[in-house]
Amino acid sequence: MDVAGDDERGTTERVLALLGLLQQRQVWTGPELADRLGVTPRTVRRDVERLRTLGYPVHASQGVGGGYQLGPGQDLPPLLLDDEEAIATAVSLLVGAGGAVASAGGAALRALTKLDRVLPTRLRREVRALSGSVESFGAGRTPVDAEALMVLARACRDEVEVGFGYPSGKGVRGRRAEPYRLVASEQRWYLLAYDLDRDDWRSFRVDRMTGVSARTWRFRPRAAPDAARYVQEGVASRVYPHQARFLVRAPAETVRAQVPASAAVVHPRGSTLCEVLSGAASLDFVLMHVLLLGHDFEVLDPPELARRCRALAQRLLSAGASIPPGPEPEEP
Known about the structure:
The protein is an alpha+beta fold. The strands form 3 sheets. Strands 6-5-4-3-7 form a 5-stranded antiparallel sheet, with helices on both faces. Strands 9-10-8-11 form a 4-stranded antiparallel sheet. It has 3 domains: 11-70, Arc Repressor Mutant, subunit A; 83-226, no CATH class; 240-318, Alpha-Beta Plaits (2-Layer Sandwich). The protein contains 11 helices and 11 strands. GO terms for molecular function: DNA binding; DNA-binding transcription factor activity. Residues 11-66 form the HTH deoR-type domain.
């Protein structure tokens, strides 16, 4: 019989129970804790020291109204959650990750992935059932299946292949991919993955995926592009038939505030210049939007767009030739 092992497990369970009591109420006296745990006050003092060693700031005060109190610390030690608290936390994170709260979605998914490491299997069914009964409304990110997000997040973490259905020109096709990162924009969730069918990197919109599942086949991670930048460039330019680059005479921060991240990629070129990469179905459409930013700019690429600028400039000059020159209108 492993008596030492049993004693160690008993001590661990008791210390966790003590931590749970300290999280439930602001102040406990030593005798109260000893009575709840079925031990002596001396054992309580030893267990309090064990918690302090683990990084939990347990304060002790003497006199009337004194006792043991769990205080805030500089580091965040592991939380102790009972079944109901774990379920409530997981459901809240699922809603935050898959719903319309754009600013909290990424943090919620990261926290949920960490919680998933320790969530017992018996609780996952309850989390799934409860999350299916919660909906949200309002502006923000396109809603996605929160459980699909979790499957993809776990697959990224565990480095296993995923399979899913994805629309193409010939209908929905089954896809196989090595998932690398989940990326959240202000509107949608994307998966950056190595597409095994096309033998290349690709970003997939999570809201378009169906039947998401993790496979048992593990893969060795490849050298990957910067996930956020790759997805943003794809959303802003690569998905369109025409792409254009401009040198804009304004700070990158100023232009970023004017253009949604899904519409253009802005790279700084010093403190007063920036490069803007964007795409559209028509080069004239891209040109119009850059013109309306209100900054001086020049076309870097493609060459035909520079020629188009000169042609449009001549047309604009001709359009205003019949009107006598006057004071320049003030910019809005």
